[in-house]
Amino acid sequence: MSHARTRRTALTTGLLLGAGALLGAAAPTGATSRVLTEHRLSDRLVELTMDSPALGGRSGVALLTPRGWDRRRPGDRWPTLYLFAGGDGDHRIWTNLFKVQDLAELRDVLVVMPGMPLFGFWTDWWNHGKGGSPQVRTYFLHEVVPLVERDYGAGPSRAAAGESQGGFGALGLAARVTGLFGAVAAFGAPVHPIRHPEMWLSGAKFVGVDGYAIFGDPWKQWRTWLDWDPYHHARGLRHTPVYLASGDGTPGPLDGDEPDPHIPGTEKWVALADDGVVSVTEAVCGEETRMLSDRLTSLGAPVTTHIYPGGHSGTYGHRELRHALPMLTAALRR
């Protein structure tokens, strides 16, 4: 279910709040983060280490800075692209593997790449009804966005993209927080996870995480599973340009060197997979992507969809981000 340095999955819970309420109001009590360290890694790349009350620990955030950023004055703002990490939570994936620093289209864009806990699913964890950290959605909305908009030149013109769980997070936020992003893209993502709950619960267990702490039981806490599900809240994306991409689970040209591992608990979906499928995780993501695409099309939403041969452990996000960039940057220019 994962590339050695990326990919896992995504889900959430929460109240429907507008972007103004979430981003304009003061952060919840005890949820104000602070920057512990700031390191320049290259002429454009800056890495922050944050102390995050929402996560209950430290988190890394990488910034790919635009031209003129080092000479910024108070009040200077740049259009901002948020890139969401996959299930391994590695904020460095976008520069180390996907080489976003090489994209000329982003020379005048601030790119913000937050990390998250392993298999954090960009959600505020249910924690068996107790709530509390990690609150990954709260971390992004109340800590990362206010911080970079206050201190690092991020502007209110925002777009977002994510791979695997990051795609779920980007789409779920765009669907539930009206006006947060002007455009959004997801690559190889679980965009309707309650459709295949065994996949994501088994994936969590496989990497040593209690999936029931994240989501609850899909039969007993199904409202929690649906709360930020992009398919369930597709109406919230009717006016947001969306780019959806996923492999179909068959062998593809950019697959990783190692095949997807067998994940105990996914035998049902392995048995139901079409002939030729070698990555059941990506086949499931592909099915959910088609479902969301059809739903958005029926709503008249501006959606572009690319289904291709490929598995879940390759570098397709590198290619698909480049396909999505014209849509994302067009939204940032508005």
TrEMBL record:
<dbReference type="InterPro" id="IPR000801">
    <property type="entry name" value="Esterase-like"/>
</dbReference>
<keyword id="KW-0012">Acyltransferase</keyword>
<dbReference type="InterPro" id="IPR050583">
    <property type="entry name" value="Mycobacterial_A85_antigen"/>
</dbReference>
<keyword id="KW-0732">Signal</keyword>
<dbReference type="GO" id="GO:0016787">
    <property type="term" value="F:hydrolase activity"/>
</dbReference>
<dbReference type="InterPro" id="IPR029058">
    <property type="entry name" value="AB_hydrolase_fold"/>
</dbReference>
<keyword id="KW-0808">Transferase</keyword>
<keyword id="KW-0378">Hydrolase</keyword>
<dbReference type="Pfam" id="PF00756">
    <property type="entry name" value="Esterase"/>
</dbReference>
<dbReference type="InterPro" id="IPR006311">
    <property type="entry name" value="TAT_signal"/>
</dbReference>
<feature type="signal peptide">
    <location>
        <begin position="1"/>
        <end position="26"/>
    </location>
</feature>
<comment type="similarity">
    <text>Belongs to the mycobacterial A85 antigen family.</text>
</comment>
<protein>
    <recommendedName>
        <fullName>Acyl-CoA:diacylglycerol acyltransferase</fullName>
        <ecNumber>2.3.1.122</ecNumber>
        <ecNumber>2.3.1.20</ecNumber>
    </recommendedName>
</protein>
